[in-house]
Specification:
The structure is a homodimer of 242-residue chains. Chain A is an alpha/beta fold. Chain A is built from 8 helices and 13 strands.
């Protein structure tokens, strides 16, 4: 009667925590998006597996709840952190009628942190995390948050910056940010973090406007002090380094 | 000639990633705040160790650079994620004159994610991370960011919400947020995450105003949709769960 929402990190084999591995090992069933279940490799050996495709989140969480209610110990695996735009919340919502169900989140390294590490150290100061997916959030809300974060000089990390149907969303976000942030603001992006085909780049906010992200890209836009030091994107914390 | 800035997670033994453990194992020297170096237990066996106390960050990072330049492989350990208000940025800044020095960040689970996991699933939607420490940031900047994040209905996670000299900073932050957010906004806090004496609580924003945080507390303030389901703090992502 237990469900774990388990974050497995960004995708490299070693980016997972010991706690996540132990949790998966001690579970009887693994539930997840098929591509993420692939990522856990041998950990799934000898387990019952329930996978489904993109946008089947509700179906997977409901299945996990049904399995747990039938006595299984269920690990729902998510890339990054299960608690950041992951499955942890949906499980809690769908299980509202079953207060006896034990639900626990096992956190992981979310894409903002993995991308920041690849780029240098851009998250050394206050930052905002914004998803550009408007599948479940009105664009007006997203626009308001981008403008607020830009005006208050947050470092901003964008999840889901693009997809086939939303190819120009990052460009729109850049247009808003350029009303408050300098075009020379330093930015970075990482694609396929920790997986085959990993790529990254550092550019200005003006250049980011014409960058074509895809759904496997994480984008970080610096604050007014973010700079490039020896090829690394760094937001100073404010130490007097003289 | 290599420095790794290594995030070891929130403090529980199993919250560390495999990558972080391997990195520490392959290093010849470990540098860190003495309390964090204690947390890695046996991993420090047979290593050279350089520790110092609170507020000695610059000293530690400079020492790490000197050691790396002398040929050592250095792991600078940080709690949570070395890239979120951690040592990664200061190392890059102080090493500006040594472009030959190889600096790499090994990310970890930051306190926002660990605290969220303990509370339920409050970070399911856009969120802002703000440090309430004004040691190196003007309070006006902090105030502006709190107001911007509150007005745009971000979930907000506060790091360093209090210290002996700044006992009333969280109260001040709550006062600003109450200009934009309802007093019934659901919030949560976790103290000593993953360590001895771990405590947590869920309360309203009105109640949070009178909560006395300490420097080992992480505070999460929900957005307008955040609610409590079976004792868990949950921010709905927007799925139609009927």
């Amino acid at each position: 009667m237990k469900i774990y929402a388990v974050g497995i990190g960004s995708g490299s084999k070693d980016g997972i925590t010991y706690e996540a591995v132990k949790t998966i090992e001690n579970s009887s069933v693994i539930v997840g998006y098929d591509k993420y279940v692939e990522l856990i490799g041998d950990l799934k050996k000898d387990k019952k597996i329930y996978t489904s495709g993109m946008r089947q989140e509700k179906d997977r969480c409901q299945k996990a709840i049904d399995l747990a209610l039938s006595g299984e110990t269920v690990a729902v695996v998510c890339s990054g952190d299960a608690g950041v735009y992951g499955m942890a919340g949906l499980i809690c919502e769908l299980a509202e009628g079953f207060p006896e169900l034990d639900i626990e989140t096992v956190p992981g390294v979310t894409a903002a942190a993995s991308a920041a590490a690849k780029l240098g150290a851009p998250l050394m100061h206050d930052f905002a995390v914004i998803s550009l997916s408007d599948l479940m959030t009105p664009w007006e809300t997203i626009e308001k948050r981008i403008r607020a974060a830009a005006e208050a000089d947050f470092v901003i990390c964008f999840y889901n910056p693009s997809s086939r149907k939303r190819a120009d969303y990052l460009k729109k976000a850049c247009t808003y940010m350029l009303e408050y942030k300098s075009p020379s603001t330093m930015c970075g992006w990482v694609r396929n973090i920790g997986r085959d085909g990993e790529e990254k780049g550092i550019c200005t906010l003006a250049e980011l406007t014409d960058f074509q992200a895809d759904m496997f890209t994480t984008v970080i836009v610096g604050n007014s002090t973010t700079k490039v030091i020896n090829g690394r994107l760094v937001t100073p914390r404010g130490y007097d380094i003289r």
